[in-house]
Write a structure and sequence with these properties.
With about 425 residues, this protein is mostly helical. It is built from 17 helices and 6 strands. The chain folds into 3 domains: about 10-90, Fumarase C, Chain B, domain 1, CATH 1.10.275.10; about 110-140 and about 150-175 and about 215-260 and about 270-345, Fumarase/aspartase (Central domain) (Fumarase C, Chain A, domain 2); about 350-410. Strand 3, helix 8 (about 190-200) and strand 4 form a beta-alpha-beta unit.
């Protein structure tokens, strides 16, 4: 049976005390396995489970002299056990404890990230359905293209976050792996049963082949999933920043009644939450770089990865957890300005219909190149002269091919939403 422990919040998961708690769990389970093998007395294993304690301040004191964190930990725990201390850590290397305990922490941390991603998927799906029929201009290269709806934008993000959720869940499987295989992974001083027993109790899989450590490509897979998720959050936040620009102002992040935008300019309402998310995504990519460089170690192991992991593993998981929470608040509370969406949609005086007009001309028998040239010429007239695109088309002689009724239909916004129901049926099944 897997041991069930209450899952802490992310801020509590990576504390030094919780790290020692997981180390002690592994040491106790190893003793239980050794007792089942008859290698230590069963009553000794029972006493160890009942009496083993650690004191973080004492471990820190010992580590200052010993310069070895695991030995300091074992010495402190041994002081609570008396003669039974001789049964601790039999046949093990430090990484048997550290990596197996770390797998528990990483699995729990990733579970929290998957939960956070699921919350954001729900927020995005709700917003997509809310704004399903709210028209706006779509932009490519930052330039007006054709009409979409705001709901479509949210729907696209919902599916992207669902992919991130699945990436994180897959990475969780990659890191939920322990090893109790001795100094170089040969099981020379510890039986494979011990690894099987301990990992089974902790809800982990055993590493099929280890060196002194669990291979670090596993950690890199998790950091990659975290960095990709962060990049998606950056993408969403960047869009909010663009939509909140004064010249656009189609949407804006939540702004509290007592919030201040600038120490100098009282009128400022800045997209600071979105900007923070964009900045933090850069940090996640830096953590990934370090995780990738930790894969290549000397022979069966060196410790060049260890110091970096003390920063990147708590840092990346905690940071993404925070970013997911902030993005839920940002997008869930997004203020939308439909009147500005409509204003900007009309800004180019109908140029969004250029493709439809060109295709209609082709259907009327006009050669495609000729149709393209006619429509482009009218479009350039509309751009340069600030004219209605439809009038520019008529001045270019499009009425030879298209009636007024044809043009009415070509400029009808409803056309651009005619197949969106297909997309939203997919969304509802998400």
């Amino acid at each position: 049976m897997i041991e069930r422990y209450a899952r802490p919040a992310m801020r509590d998961l990576w504390t030094t005390e919780n790290k020692y708690r997981q180390w002690l769990r592994v040491e106790i389970l190893v003793c239980e396995a050794l007792a089942l093998l008859g290698q230590i007395p069963p009553d000794a294993a029972e006493r160890i489970r009942a009496n083993a304690r650690f004191r973080p301040e004492r471990i820190a004191e010992l580590e200052a002299d010993l310069r070895h964190d695991v030995l300091a930990f074992l010495t402190d725990v041994g002081e609570s056990l008396g003669d039974d201390a001789r049964y601790l850590h039999l046949g093990l290397t430090s990484s048997d404890i550290v990596d197996t305990a770390q797998a528990v922490l990483l699995a729990q941390a990733t579970d929290m990230l998957v939960d956070g991603a699921s919350r954001l998927v729900a927020v995005l799906k709700e917003q997509a359905l809310r704004y399903k029929d709210t028209p706006m201009i779509g932009r490519t290269h930052g330039v007006h293209a054709e009409p979409i709806t705001l709901g479509l934008k949210f729907a696209l993000w919902a599916f992207e976050m669902d992919r991130n959720r699945r990436r994180l869940a897959q990475a969780r499987e990659a890191v939920a792996v322990g090893k109790i295989s001795g100094a170089v992974g040969t099981y020379a001083t510890v039986e494979p049963f011990v690894e099987e027993y301990v990992c089974g109790k902790l809800g982990l899989r055993a590493e099929p082949v280890s060196s002194q450590i669990v291979p670090r490509d596993r950690y890199a897979e998790l950091l990659a999933a975290i960095a990709i998720t962060g990049a998606s959050l950056e993408k969403f936040a960047t869009e909010v920043r663009h939509l909140q620009r004064t010249e656009v102002m189609e949407a804006a992040e939540p702004f509290g009644e007592r919030q201040k935008g600038s120490s100098a300019m009282p009128h400022k309402r800045n997209p600071v939450q979105a900007e923070q998310i964009c900045g933090l995504a850069r940090v996640l990519r830096g953590y990934l770089t370090t995780a990738l460089e930790n894969i290549a170690l000397w022979h069966e192991r060196d410790i060049s990865h260890s110091s970096a992991e003390r920063i990147i593993l708590p840092g990346a998981t905690s940071l993404l957890d925070y970013m997911l929470d902030r993005t839920c608040a940002l997008l869930g509370g997004l203020e939308v300005f439909p009147e500005n969406l409509a204003r900007n949609l009309a800004l180019t005086r109908g140029l969004f219909a250029s493709q439809r007009v060109m295709l209609a001309l082709v259907e009327k028998g006009v050669a495609r190149d000729e149709a393209y040239a006619l429509v482009q010429g009218a479009a350039m007239d509309a751009w340069r002269q600030g004219r209605e695109f439809r009038q520019a088309l008529e001045d270019r002689g499009v009425s030879r091919y298209l009636s007024a009724e044809d043009l009415d239909a070509l400029f009808d916004l409803a056309f651009y939403r005619r197949n969106l129901e297909v997309i939203f049926r997919r969304l509802e099944a998400l």
